[in-house]
Amino acid sequence: MSLLHRGKDKVISLLLKGKLDDLIKDFGEVKALSVNTDDKIIAARIALKGESKPYEVLLSNYRFRRDDGKFYFMFDDLGTSREWVNAVLSKVLKAKQFEVPAQYAEIAEKLM
After folding, report:
1. What separation, in Å, do the N-terminal and C-terminal C-alpha atoms of the chain show?
2. Per-residue pLDDT tens for 31-65?
3. Share in percent of the chain as helix, strand, coil (round to 5)
4. DSSP H helical ranges for 1-112
5. Phi and psi based region of residue 106 (left: phi greater than 0; alpha: psi -120 to 50; beta: remaining)
6. pLDDT for the residue numbered 31
């Protein structure tokens, strides 16, 4: 990976961390977040209020689809450092596709 590409991933990681921090500010904070656009991996460490240890979250093979002016975020696998959370997610996240709110479309385009 070139220095320029690593710099791009670092900037995207910081932008995404800031947006995710805003999104979860009522119940936690993002301690760390990294994006690898070559391998299509997003890794995060999230501290939730009332929890003694942060959650490790790994999204793999992410991609975006644009359809009729809307962005959709898709991924093949989502894993966390908590076994029970993984079990719940495997039942709840069958579609593994979510519409990206318009205010986050700019970041979505950078992740493509």
Report:
1. 17
2. 999 999 899 999 999 999 999 999 999 989 988 88
3. 40, 35, 25
4. 3-24, 83-92, 105-111
5. alpha
6. 97
